[in-house]
Amino acid sequence: MNGFTVAIDGPAASGKGTISRAVAEAFGFAHLDTGLLYRAVGARVLEGVTPEDAARALVPEDLESDALRTPEVAQAASRVAAVPEVRAALVDFQRTFAARAGGAVLDGRDIGTVICPGAQVKLFVTASREVRARRRCAELQGKGHDVTLEEVLADVTARDARDMGRADAPLRAAADAVEIDTTDMKIADAVAAAVALIKAKRVDHS
Protein backbone atom coordinates (compact mmCIF):
# COMPACT_ATOMS: atom_id res chain seq x y z
CA MET A 1 0.00 0.00 0.00
CA ASN A 2 1.37 3.38 -1.04
CA GLY A 3 1.35 6.45 1.16
CA PHE A 4 -0.04 6.37 4.67
CA THR A 5 -3.57 5.18 5.38
CA VAL A 6 -5.71 5.83 8.45
CA ALA A 7 -8.79 3.60 8.84
CA ILE A 8 -11.46 4.87 11.22
CA ASP A 9 -14.51 2.72 11.92
CA GLY A 10 -17.43 2.98 14.28
CA PRO A 11 -21.22 3.13 14.57
CA ALA A 12 -23.49 6.01 13.60
CA ALA A 13 -23.00 9.31 15.48
CA SER A 14 -19.98 8.05 17.41
CA GLY A 15 -17.89 11.03 16.28
CA LYS A 16 -15.79 9.18 13.72
CA GLY A 17 -16.62 11.62 10.93
CA THR A 18 -15.64 14.67 12.97
CA ILE A 19 -12.44 12.99 14.11
CA SER A 20 -11.62 11.84 10.58
CA ARG A 21 -12.02 15.31 9.09
CA ALA A 22 -9.90 16.86 11.86
CA VAL A 23 -7.18 14.23 11.43
CA ALA A 24 -7.12 14.73 7.67
CA GLU A 25 -6.75 18.47 8.13
CA ALA A 26 -4.04 18.09 10.78
CA PHE A 27 -1.85 15.93 8.54
CA GLY A 28 -2.84 17.21 5.11
CA PHE A 29 -4.34 13.83 4.16
CA ALA A 30 -7.23 13.32 1.77
CA HIS A 31 -10.48 12.27 3.48
CA LEU A 32 -13.23 9.93 2.34
CA ASP A 33 -16.45 9.48 4.29
CA THR A 34 -17.27 6.05 2.89
CA GLY A 35 -20.76 6.28 4.34
CA LEU A 36 -21.46 8.81 1.60
CA LEU A 37 -20.89 6.07 -0.98
CA TYR A 38 -23.70 4.03 0.53
CA ARG A 39 -25.87 7.12 1.00
CA ALA A 40 -25.43 7.97 -2.68
CA VAL A 41 -26.42 4.45 -3.65
CA GLY A 42 -29.35 4.56 -1.22
CA ALA A 43 -30.54 7.86 -2.69
CA ARG A 44 -30.59 6.36 -6.17
CA VAL A 45 -32.47 3.31 -4.88
CA LEU A 46 -35.14 5.62 -3.45
CA GLU A 47 -35.48 6.94 -7.02
CA GLY A 48 -36.17 3.43 -8.30
CA VAL A 49 -32.70 2.25 -9.37
CA THR A 50 -31.61 -1.22 -8.26
CA PRO A 51 -28.87 -1.25 -5.57
CA GLU A 52 -26.41 -3.11 -7.82
CA ASP A 53 -26.88 -0.73 -10.76
CA ALA A 54 -26.63 2.33 -8.53
CA ALA A 55 -23.35 1.10 -7.00
CA ARG A 56 -21.76 0.27 -10.36
CA ALA A 57 -22.68 3.67 -11.83
CA LEU A 58 -21.42 5.72 -8.87
CA VAL A 59 -19.18 8.70 -9.69
CA PRO A 60 -17.43 11.13 -7.29
CA GLU A 61 -19.90 13.92 -8.13
CA ASP A 62 -22.71 11.81 -6.64
CA LEU A 63 -21.17 12.36 -3.19
CA GLU A 64 -21.62 16.14 -3.21
CA SER A 65 -25.41 16.43 -2.81
CA ASP A 66 -26.84 17.87 0.42
CA ALA A 67 -29.79 15.49 -0.05
CA LEU A 68 -27.58 12.61 1.14
CA ARG A 69 -27.91 13.78 4.76
CA THR A 70 -31.63 13.10 5.24
CA PRO A 71 -32.92 10.38 7.63
CA GLU A 72 -34.63 8.61 4.72
CA VAL A 73 -31.39 8.33 2.77
CA ALA A 74 -29.56 7.18 5.92
CA GLN A 75 -32.00 4.31 6.33
CA ALA A 76 -31.73 3.41 2.64
CA ALA A 77 -27.93 3.50 2.92
CA SER A 78 -27.97 1.06 5.83
CA ARG A 79 -30.20 -1.31 3.83
CA VAL A 80 -28.11 -1.25 0.64
CA ALA A 81 -24.91 -1.67 2.68
CA ALA A 82 -26.13 -5.16 3.57
CA VAL A 83 -26.21 -6.16 -0.13
CA PRO A 84 -22.97 -8.06 -0.93
CA GLU A 85 -23.00 -6.98 -4.60
CA VAL A 86 -23.13 -3.32 -3.56
CA ARG A 87 -20.20 -3.67 -1.17
CA ALA A 88 -18.16 -5.52 -3.81
CA ALA A 89 -18.80 -2.80 -6.39
CA LEU A 90 -17.52 -0.09 -4.04
CA VAL A 91 -14.38 -1.84 -2.79
CA ASP A 92 -12.12 -0.71 -5.65
CA PHE A 93 -13.31 2.90 -5.35
CA GLN A 94 -12.29 2.95 -1.69
CA ARG A 95 -8.99 1.10 -2.07
CA THR A 96 -7.87 3.35 -4.90
CA PHE A 97 -8.58 6.37 -2.71
CA ALA A 98 -6.71 4.82 0.22
CA ALA A 99 -3.60 4.14 -1.84
CA ARG A 100 -2.95 7.76 -2.88
CA ALA A 101 0.61 8.89 -2.26
CA GLY A 102 -0.23 11.93 -0.12
CA GLY A 103 -1.91 9.93 2.63
CA ALA A 104 -5.58 9.21 3.20
CA VAL A 105 -8.14 8.94 5.99
CA LEU A 106 -11.16 6.72 5.37
CA ASP A 107 -14.01 6.44 7.82
CA GLY A 108 -16.79 3.89 7.73
CA ARG A 109 -17.75 0.54 9.18
CA ASP A 110 -15.43 -1.98 7.53
CA ILE A 111 -12.33 0.04 6.63
CA GLY A 112 -9.90 -1.60 9.04
CA THR A 113 -11.38 -5.08 8.66
CA VAL A 114 -12.11 -5.34 4.92
CA ILE A 115 -11.20 -2.32 2.80
CA CYS A 116 -7.77 -1.47 4.21
CA PRO A 117 -6.62 -4.31 6.49
CA GLY A 118 -3.04 -3.13 5.92
CA ALA A 119 -3.70 0.46 7.06
CA GLN A 120 -0.89 1.91 9.16
CA VAL A 121 -3.38 3.22 11.74
CA LYS A 122 -6.75 1.70 12.67
CA LEU A 123 -9.12 3.41 15.06
CA PHE A 124 -12.53 2.28 16.30
CA VAL A 125 -14.59 5.22 17.53
CA THR A 126 -17.61 4.38 19.67
CA ALA A 127 -20.02 5.81 22.24
CA SER A 128 -23.09 4.65 24.11
CA ARG A 129 -26.26 4.26 22.04
CA GLU A 130 -28.11 6.88 24.11
CA VAL A 131 -25.37 9.48 23.68
CA ARG A 132 -25.20 8.80 19.96
CA ALA A 133 -28.97 9.18 19.65
CA ARG A 134 -28.89 12.53 21.49
CA ARG A 135 -26.14 13.78 19.18
CA ARG A 136 -27.95 12.70 16.04
CA CYS A 137 -31.26 14.10 17.25
CA ALA A 138 -29.69 17.49 17.98
CA GLU A 139 -28.01 17.47 14.56
CA LEU A 140 -31.26 16.67 12.73
CA GLN A 141 -33.33 19.15 14.72
CA GLY A 142 -30.69 21.78 14.04
CA LYS A 143 -31.22 21.19 10.33
CA GLY A 144 -34.97 21.62 10.66
CA HIS A 145 -36.01 17.96 10.73
CA ASP A 146 -39.07 17.19 12.86
CA VAL A 147 -37.80 14.24 14.91
CA THR A 148 -37.97 13.12 18.53
CA LEU A 149 -35.24 11.55 20.64
CA GLU A 150 -37.29 8.35 20.87
CA GLU A 151 -37.52 8.12 17.06
CA VAL A 152 -33.80 8.73 16.61
CA LEU A 153 -32.89 6.20 19.31
CA ALA A 154 -35.04 3.60 17.53
CA ASP A 155 -33.34 4.49 14.24
CA VAL A 156 -29.84 4.23 15.74
CA THR A 157 -30.73 0.90 17.35
CA ALA A 158 -32.04 -0.46 14.05
CA ARG A 159 -28.96 0.71 12.15
CA ASP A 160 -26.64 -0.85 14.72
CA ALA A 161 -28.49 -4.16 14.41
CA ARG A 162 -28.23 -4.13 10.62
CA ASP A 163 -24.59 -3.00 10.56
CA MET A 164 -23.41 -5.47 13.18
CA GLY A 165 -25.62 -8.35 12.08
CA ARG A 166 -25.08 -8.42 8.33
CA ALA A 167 -23.31 -11.46 6.93
CA ASP A 168 -20.96 -9.48 4.68
CA ALA A 169 -18.41 -7.17 6.38
CA PRO A 170 -20.25 -6.58 9.66
CA LEU A 171 -19.37 -3.59 11.79
CA ARG A 172 -16.69 -4.58 14.30
CA ALA A 173 -13.33 -3.35 15.47
CA ALA A 174 -10.27 -4.76 13.73
CA ALA A 175 -8.16 -6.91 16.03
CA ASP A 176 -5.37 -4.32 15.95
CA ALA A 177 -7.57 -1.21 16.13
CA VAL A 178 -7.27 1.28 18.98
CA GLU A 179 -10.66 2.11 20.51
CA ILE A 180 -11.66 5.68 21.30
CA ASP A 181 -14.84 5.87 23.38
CA THR A 182 -16.34 9.36 23.04
CA THR A 183 -19.28 8.82 25.42
CA ASP A 184 -17.85 11.15 28.07
CA MET A 185 -15.14 12.74 25.94
CA LYS A 186 -14.93 16.24 24.51
CA ILE A 187 -14.40 16.13 20.76
CA ALA A 188 -11.16 18.11 21.07
CA ASP A 189 -9.78 15.45 23.42
CA ALA A 190 -10.84 12.65 21.06
CA VAL A 191 -9.15 14.39 18.15
CA ALA A 192 -6.00 14.96 20.22
CA ALA A 193 -5.89 11.26 21.12
CA ALA A 194 -6.24 10.26 17.46
CA VAL A 195 -3.58 12.73 16.32
CA ALA A 196 -1.14 11.49 18.96
CA LEU A 197 -1.61 7.88 17.86
CA ILE A 198 -1.08 8.77 14.22
CA LYS A 199 2.03 10.84 14.96
CA ALA A 200 3.57 7.88 16.78
CA LYS A 201 2.78 5.53 13.89
CA ARG A 202 4.19 7.96 11.32
CA VAL A 203 7.47 8.01 13.21
CA ASP A 204 7.53 4.21 13.09
CA HIS A 205 6.58 4.22 9.41
CA SER A 206 9.21 6.74 8.31
Show the helix and strand layout.
Layout: E1 5-9, H1 16-27, E2 30-33, H2 35-46, H3 51-56, H4 71-80, H5 84-98, E3 104-108, H6 111-115, E4 121-126, H7 129-142, H8 149-165, E5 178-181, H9 187-205
Parallel strand pairs: 1-3, 1-4, 2-3, 4-5
Helix pairs in contact: 1-9, 2-4, 7-8
Could you explain the architecture of this structure?
By secondary structure, the chain is an alpha/beta fold. The protein has a single domain, classed as P-loop containing nucleotide triphosphate hydrolases (Rossmann fold, 3-Layer(aba) Sandwich). The protein is built from 9 helices and 5 strands, in the order βαβααααβαβααβα. It has a 5-stranded parallel sheet with strand order 2-3-1-4-5, with helices on both faces. Helix 1 packs across helix 9 and helix 2 crosses helix 4. The longest helix is centred in the last third of the chain and has 19 residues. The chain is globular. The model has no long low-confidence stretch (mean pLDDT 93).
SSE arrangement, N to C: EHEHHHHEHEHHEH
Please list the strands of the largest sheet in the order they lie side by side: 2-3-1-4-5
What's the mean pLDDT score?
93
What is the percentage of strand-forming residues? 5-15%
Number of domains: 1
CATH-defined topology: Rossmann fold
CATH class placement? Alpha Beta
Task: Determine the N-to-C terminus distance.
Answer: 14 Å
Count of helical segments? 9
Please give the share of residues in helix: 40-55%
Largest sheet: 5 strands, parallel
Structural class: alpha/beta
* Count of extended strands: 5
Radius of gyration: 16 Å
CATH architecture: 3-Layer(aba) Sandwich
Molecular shape: globular
CATH homologous superfamily grouping: P-loop containing nucleotide triphosphate hydrolases
Detail the poorly predicted runs.
Answer: none
